[in-house]
Description:
Helices cover about 25% and strands about 30% of the residues. The chain is built from six helices and 14 strands. The strands form three sheets. Strands 8, 9, 10, 11, 12, 13 and 14 form a seven-stranded antiparallel sheet that branches. Strands 1-2-3-7-6 form a five-stranded antiparallel sheet. The chain binds guanosine-5'-monophosphate.
Amino acid sequence: xxKGKKLYEGKAKIVYAAPDSxxxxxxxxxxxxxxxxxxxxxxxxxxxLNNRISEHIxxxxxxxxxxxxxxxxxxxxxxLIKLVDIIPIExxxxxxxTGSITKRLGIKDGTILDRPLxxxxxxxxxxxxxxxxxxxxLAFNWATATELDWITEQCFRINDFMQGMFRGVGIxxxxxxxxxxxTRTGKKQIILADEISxxxxxxxxIDSDEKLDKDRFRKDLGNLIPAYKExxxxxxxxxxxxxxxxxxxxxxxxxxxxxx
Length: 260
Ligand code: 5GP
């Protein structure tokens, strides 16, 4: 499929115009960034893995009635997606406290939350994606109260589904980030956008708590590709990627899962 002009370039993805209006092509890069772009690297093969893992998760979510921007995966690095105007909020869902919440509130790392927690962050790199309240979203018209209630409900449904999916393959879904957008053509509809991958989730091995996500990069743990491959292997999609040259240099099982 012929790519049109570049519409947007983010840290890990590029969005190009697609031949059909209302659609776009989302390209997954190998770039890894953390701490608001202070730490940067290129990790060969990451984009390929995120493209396939995100396709798998979004397709599974479509199966339970969640509307997403995914039309289809086109190749190893690209997906055809519906063009949306992104709501400038990161919706963070947490099942276990780790990362920013532990620093912000002094909660012990690894604390299992009694019920899932949703947080809202304003999507602005220059401001470091600050935590905001529901009232900010309403005050600045980033979404209406009805839209926000609906998105919140979707977030918890997605969490329930994904927790079960990952638990079934021996992975704890610790937390994750979602983005939603409004379609541009036809009836303006809010749909799930962006990606769901080990870049946007925290995933821990159920027995060892070994990190199988982007924290391997953030915390200099190394072995990021073997960890992402391990996620793909458990989701039973790795075999489709075995001929990809970028992924050949690391055997699927080369990550050592420590026992607790
Ligand atoms: P935290 O707030 O603890 O840094 O992140 C919570 C969860 O949201 C983690 O799973 C993290 O990967 C995800 N997350 C939050 N902000 C971003 C972001 O700007 N980019 C990506 N890729 N993930 C994010």
